[in-house]
């Protein structure tokens, strides 16, 4: 498999976690969403993935893709911080309540689930957009537990081949 990915993309991170959890070896093809006006808009990438988004996972000639950077672009640079903080806080307010009845070691009991694959990148987004995580002790506890797992460590944005040197772990 080939994963067309951007180091900071939370959607790409979820795919990297899933591949690591399943023990699936893959090749990473970095697609810089900012450089040169966005490498996802190149004719070469568009031929592979007409949606021009990352991640794109190519397996046996089939390409699967999904992304969320386009939302931030639509909101506009001057509104991104406020929009992101409001969206994340709203989601975390609900999630913290839900986790009271579902959480064990992880989001749903004591086995890693799709919810966990979504949680860790979203907590990273919260930190990036300076959301106060104090009101979310369950989310914070689960996130810390998940980040200790190898699959979450090797897939972390700070450990990707296209991570800028100043952001590497």
From TrEMBL:
It catalyses: RX + glutathione = an S-substituted glutathione + a halide anion + H(+); 4-maleylacetoacetate = 4-fumarylacetoacetate. InterPro entries: Glutathione-S-Trfase_C-like, Glutathione-S-Trfase_C_sf, Glutathione_S-Trfase_N, GST_C, GST_Zeta_C, GST_Zeta_N, Thioredoxin-like_sf. One of its GO terms (biological process) is L-phenylalanine catabolic process. It is found in: Cytoplasm. Its EC number is 2.5.1.18, 5.2.1.2. Residues 1-82 form the GST N-terminal domain. Pathway: Amino-acid degradation; L-phenylalanine degradation; acetoacetate and fumarate from L-phenylalanine: step 5/6. One of its GO terms (cellular component) is cytoplasm. The keyword Ubl conjugation does not apply. Its cofactor is glutathione. GO terms for molecular function: glutathione transferase activity; maleylacetoacetate isomerase activity. It comes from the Eukaryota. Residues 49-165 form the GST C-terminal domain. Its main location: cytoplasm. Gene3D superfamilies: 1.20.1050.10, Glutaredoxin. Keywords: Cytoplasm, Isomerase, Phenylalanine catabolism, Transferase, Tyrosine catabolism. The keyword Iron-sulfur does not apply. Belongs to the GST superfamily. Zeta family. This is Maleylacetoacetate isomerase.
């Amino acid at each position: 498999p080939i994963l067309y990915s951007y180091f900071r993309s939370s959607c790409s991170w979820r795919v990297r976690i899933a591949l690591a959890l399943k023990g699936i070896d893959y090749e990473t093809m970095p697609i810089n969403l900012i450089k040169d006006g966005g490498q996802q808009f190149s004719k070469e990438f568009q031929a592979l993935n007409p949606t021009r988004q990352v991640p794109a996972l190519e397996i046996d000639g089939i390409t699967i893709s999904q992304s969320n950077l386009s939302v931030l672009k639509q909101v506009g640079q001057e509104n991104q911080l406020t929009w992101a903080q409001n969206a994340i806080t709203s989601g975390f307010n609900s999630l913290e309540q839900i986790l009271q009845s579902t959480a064990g070691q992880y989001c749903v009991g004591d086995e890693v689930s799709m919810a966990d694959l979504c949680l860790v990148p979203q907590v990273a987004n919260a930190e990036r957009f300076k959301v106060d995580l104090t009101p979310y002790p369950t989310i914070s506890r689960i996130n810390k537990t998940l980040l200790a797992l190898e699959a979450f460590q090797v897939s972390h944005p700070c450990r990707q081949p296209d991570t800028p040197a100043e952001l590497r772990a």
